Write a sequence for this structure.
């Protein structure tokens, strides 16, 4: 039975506004085949806790919830020792099996995959999901300042890695080539 | 940002692996919306719903949880209905370490769950998986009766008189939308969501006690019309007889 009422109508508006981007968000992380389950579970949590969703940042709330659902999904997969390919192997690795078909996009994604998890996450949220700093901070559970710092570092590292990948014979200096292996918040000179 | 970074980020955006923008008006999307709204409709009369879902998925960091306090306060006013207790108790001995639970869905919609009770410190993740499996079931850690004044709103079809005979208990157990078996500290549960009446929720209480006979695992399934804020189990010194 589908309920009527103002809350249901407002939830439907929320669903309509964010279904597509949430599906793309999930598909990037767990593959298109599982994305629908993630989105469904996320909206189920959202409906059950509808009153708690902040009116000013519903998208960030949904993304943060979806991240939690995805974490559970990946843990569940690992525990059951099945479907681990999607969880543990990036799309790039699957496509690289087809020698000679590595396109520019796959190469760029491979470079992204070389970065630390936090670098990848902040870049995905801002460049692919289109979140602003405030939304990304809400999703990541940190301050706007922290996101700004992380984003600045991540962009610099990604550009350096990509440049190194473009010019394999012209390796950049150690300082620009390896910063992504330094844990977030520390410095290397 | 310099030109090198700008160029790199432009290439990154172009390498977005996301599929084409899904159509929110597609039949699949509308069916998903209907399912979500319907699942809420099943339990939306339960004042305590928020209290339980709070345990299922933690609130995203940085967002207010003011609603939680309100919900918990309201939970005290939950309806009190006659009690039915179906307890299964078995002596427990420490077993080998393994994952605390597994959840698998059968082709007929059944949901198979195994739980190592001693290792189940927080059922929130298990409950999230049960939601995903559409089991319409919640697992709750039971608390001593003195700490849980609220009686669960057990569906009248699943209530038992306090002086129920063994035959009545057996008949009642056969009506439950689950079968379960305790082996040591592990319980195997076969949930049949299709047998849970519309509007009801299967709540499985569990406890792990130390008593005169050693450590004991206890399971108490109840079919409720409103999810209770807590579920009472026996005191350690008043354990029911194993069966």
């Amino acid at each position: 039975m589908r309920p009527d009422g103002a809350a249901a109508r407002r939830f439907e508006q929320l669903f309509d506004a964010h279904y597509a981007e949430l599906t793309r968000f999930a598909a990037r992380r767990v593959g298109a085949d599982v994305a629908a389950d993630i989105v469904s579970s996320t909206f189920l949590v959202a409906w059950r806790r509808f009153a708690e969703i902040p009116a000013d940042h519903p998208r960030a709330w949904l993304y943060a919830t979806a991240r939690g659902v995805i974490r559970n999904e990946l843990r569940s997969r690992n525990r059951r020792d099945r479907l681990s390919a999607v969880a543990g192997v990036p799309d790039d690795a699957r496509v690289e099996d087809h020698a000679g078909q590595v396109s520019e996009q796959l190469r760029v994604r491979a470079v992204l995959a070389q970065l630390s998890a936090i670098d990848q996450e902040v870049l995905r949220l801002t460049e692919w999901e289109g979140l602003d700093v405030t939304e990304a901070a809400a999703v990541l559970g940190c301050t706007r300042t922290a996101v700004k710092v992380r984003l600045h570092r991540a962009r610099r590292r990604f550009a350096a890695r990509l440049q190194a990948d473009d010019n394999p014979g012209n390796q950049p200096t150690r300082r620009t080539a390896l910063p992504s292996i330094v844990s977030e918040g520390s410095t290397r000179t | 940002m310099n030109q090198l970074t700008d160029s790199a980020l432009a290439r990154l955006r172009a390498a977005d692996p996301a599929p084409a923008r899904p159509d929110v008006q597609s039949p699949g999307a509308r069916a998903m919306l209907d399912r979500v709204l319907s699942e809420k409709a099943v339990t939306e009369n339960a004042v305590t719903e928020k209290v339980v879902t709070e345990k299922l998925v933690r609130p995203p960091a940085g967002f207010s949880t003011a609603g939680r306090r309100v919900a918990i306060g309201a939970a005290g006013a939950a309806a009190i209905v006659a009690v039915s207790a179906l307890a299964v108790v078995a002596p427990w001995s420490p077993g080998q370490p393994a994952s605390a639970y597994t959840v698998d869905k059968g082709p007929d919609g059944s949901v198979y769950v195994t739980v190592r009770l001693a290792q189940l410190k927080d059922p929130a993740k298990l409950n999230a998986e049960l939601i995903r499996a559409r089991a319409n079931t919640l697992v709750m850690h039971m608390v001593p009766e003195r700490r849980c004044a609220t009686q669960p709103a057990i569906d009248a079809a699943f209530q038992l008189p306090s002086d129920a005979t063994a035959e009545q208990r057996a008949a009642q157990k056969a009506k439950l939308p689950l079968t379960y078996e305790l082996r040591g500290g592990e319980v195997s549960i076969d949930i049949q969501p299709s047998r849970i009446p519309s509007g009801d929720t299967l709540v499985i209480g569990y406890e792990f006690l130390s008593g005169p006979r050693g450590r004991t695992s206890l399971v108490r399934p109840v079919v409720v019309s409103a999810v209770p804020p807590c579920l009472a189990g026996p005191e350690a010194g008043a354990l029911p007889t194993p069966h």
